[in-house]
Amino acid sequence: MTVQPEAVVQLCGISMRFGKVIANADVEFDLLTGEIHGLLGENGAGKTTLMNILFGMYQPDEGEILVHNQPVKIHSPHDAIRYGIGMVHQHFMQVPTLRVVDNVILGLSSAGRVFLDRDSVRQRLECISENYGLKIDPNAYIWQLSIGDRQRVEILKALYRDVQVLILDEPTSVLTPKETEELFHTVNTLVSDGLSVIFITHHLEEALSITDRITVLRNGSVVGTIPTSSASKQELASMMVGREVLFRVKREEDNESSRREVLRVEGLSALNDRDLPAVRQVSFTVNSGEIVGIAGVDGNGQSELVQTLTGLRPATHGKFSVDGVDLTGASPRHVLMHGVGHITEDSEDGLIGEFTLIENLMLDMHYMPPYSKHGRLNKALMAEKARQLIKQYDVRAPDESVKARTLSGGNKQKLMLAREISRDPKLLIAAHPTRGVDIGAEEYIRGLLLEKRHAGMAILLISTKLDEILSLSDRILIMERGRIMGEMTREEANIERIGLLMAGSEA
What we know:
This protein has helices at residues 47-54, 77-82, 100-105, 118-132, 147-160, 177-192, 204-210, 233-241, 302-309, 332-337, 347-350, 357-361, 379-392, 409-422, 439-454, 466-472, 495-502, and strands at residues 7-18, 21-32, 36-41, 62-67, 70-72, 85-88, 165-169, 196-201, 213-218, 221-227, 261-271, 277-287, 290-295, 317-322, 325-326, 340-343, 372-373, 376-377, 427-431, 458-462, 475-480, 483-489. The chain is an alpha/beta fold.
């Protein structure tokens, strides 16, 4: 007779509202001992809100939480940790100017002592790091660490507090493929050592590859819970969005002879934030009605290239021009005024969280007619334009006056797309446009980029997702250690060859 594992945590009838918005509606969820339970859903489906309730950051309007079958009240993260529940947030709770050991100490009870013994904390951290393969220097400053290492610090903080339940909120959204692989190995090691994990994601492949069970949320409600072994990608996608999802975008082929050169980059070089070479003698062109994709492992100069082309970073050598106008060294506003749109790789950099949707959509247009006259803003016209764009680009928000920080990741991305594309730029630089968004938003964004390509826009696409590069690009450039390693057309593209070039091989 097989003994069924008991539930470590149960959420019973959880409901949560923010004003008129229902974030969770009568949610039932349980986590079994020693399992990885995936919480899947579109951006804004209520996944993070539900887990913030479990971690004590929100108090539900209705419902009950059980830990080991005992009803508990979790009023704060301190309470959650006391019940053995830890959470690694999508946006890390860290102080960059402090060392790893100090970030771990933050929030710990000193038990009446003025100072905690840093040496004992450091020694225990080293022991935990060794046991779980989370190699981190406790004396390193947070700002010196990669995103993957910063995530490991958050996991170490939870393990140091002896949690038995670990909530991972969109843990791969900022990781490279290699870092994702390492994270999955760590999670499996933790579970084999007795922990239970809730894995929040909107990536179907991730949910299918690492979880034991999957619960799907849509519009704040549970659509269903199924064993991963019997789940399919198509079934999960339909559960997430409530309709059939097309996994391949439809391309319309255009007459290449009608294309004209929009962007020309010649021998461009730039340094990174540590004054080391990041972009090395890069040369390429992008034509109207064409998507040129840059593939490569994150951290190989793509970010610095984009920043140089948008006026955010000075070039140390070479030049670039848009429609024949040399913009090397131009300011971001000057670049913008010459018809360059910029989808930033992180929506936190492309939007101002404390500004309303209206204010974010009007950035860099608010000072121009018809929105401004004699130094006075036409707020009614700005609000009307914002409402039009919100509807046109399917930005899901209560209204145009809410702050941008209240939006889900996918809706922040749509908001940024709405602003940049509505300006009708000659050149759109799209850096990781679908990073961190759900499958529904991803399908929408990819379709929109192809639509604008067909309308004649020149698009430079930077992405670490090979399927995205292959499905959208007319030409593909491979970047490694700041250099362009090779170029091929969509028809010539070969995954094996792209992989070799991404790894630095000339083959």
